[in-house]
Amino acid sequence: MKLIFKLVLLFSILIVCFLSYKEKNSNDNNFGFYLVDSDSMSPTLKKGDIVITRPFDSYSSNDIVTFMYPFNMTQTITHRIIGYENEETTSFITKGDKNTTVDPWNLSDELIKGKVVFSIPFLGHLIKFIRTPVGLLLFVVLPLGLNIILEGDSLIKESRLFWIMFKRRNSFKVNKLKWKLKKRLAVQNQNRESSV
Question: What is the residue-wise DSSP string for 141-177?
Answer without folding.
Answer: IHHHHHHHHHHHHHHHHHHHHHHHHHHHHHHHHHHHH
